[in-house]
């Protein structure tokens, strides 16, 4: 029997579960085209603000032995550009496009969602509630009253499929409290995790941080965060309504990492730091490696093992 990697999220079918993580290789039409031309199952656009932004001063990304640190500061071409790209590509027989939005205020989030609602776009929309890097803007998702406000108001008018990008949580009481809130809404999915916010990496030779914005504070990604990402995927799958899907993001560098995210309950899996360093060819390697892991274990579909983490 051939091995099948197809997966669906909120009724959207992907040929395989692998996508870029928002923010990596997805800021320009060229980069988005390159992901779509690769072996990826789909693409997510760079989180959009209403107006284009240059982002923070450089250096603002640094690859590290076990991952990366970034303080990009939401550099993006603006909402109109990404909505146009998503609309133009939704009928193509290639892979689905997820449209990511990150307003700088509640009003901006709602303004963009209204524009999507009025548009021809019918695909998945992701509201990024967890950008750690805009000076003076705390992460919405660490303020549960703010999460409630944005979802209450969004679902007053938004009838398309909406997911949210969440930061890592580190205490089980936070999962319990936020799950009770999220389960009240018709969410399509949650995406866990965004980068682990406000780490500090320093170069002991120069006695300076390795990135410049925010005094060197930035979001940590890659292998450093894989255990945290897996725990968040698992914790959400244990608590959220089964109708709410999950995208697992964090620390994916090999097919085994993808397998582990799926075992924790992810429906799709996104690749951030490793895509930044290896480029879109990584998707062919990861699908090959995931297929090999499944073959060794005798699994034929993702459903054979998704969410079936064994307990000790
Ligand atoms: O642009 C960024 O600095 C950024 C964003 Br919006 C995000 O959600 N996560 C991240 O690590 N960087």
TrEMBL record:
Enzyme class: oxidoreductase
Positions of the Dihydroorotate dehydrogenase catalytic domain: 5-294
Cofactor(s) it depends on: FMN
EC number: 1.3.-.-
Amino-acid positions noted as binding substrate in the UniProt annotation, renumbered to this chain: 46, 70-74, 128, 194-195
InterPro entries: Aldolase_TIM, DHO_dehydrogenase, DHOD_1A, Dihydro_DH_chainA_dom2, Dihydroorotate_DH_1, Dihydroorotate_DH_1_2, Dihydroorotate_DH_cat, Dihydroorotate_DH_CS
Location in or out of the cell: Cytoplasm
GO biological process, one term: 'de novo' pyrimidine nucleobase biosynthetic process
Record: active site: 131 (nucleophile)
GO cellular component, one term: cytoplasm
Residues annotated as binding FMN: 46-47, 128, 165, 193, 222, 250-251, 272-273
GO molecular function (one): dihydroorotate dehydrogenase (fumarate) activity
Chief place where the protein resides: cytoplasm
HAMAP family membership: DHO_dh_type1 (MF_00224)
Quaternary organization: Homodimer.
Similarity comment text for this entry: Belongs to the dihydroorotate dehydrogenase family. Type 1 subfamily.
Function summary: Catalyzes the conversion of dihydroorotate to orotate.
Protein name: Dihydroorotate dehydrogenase
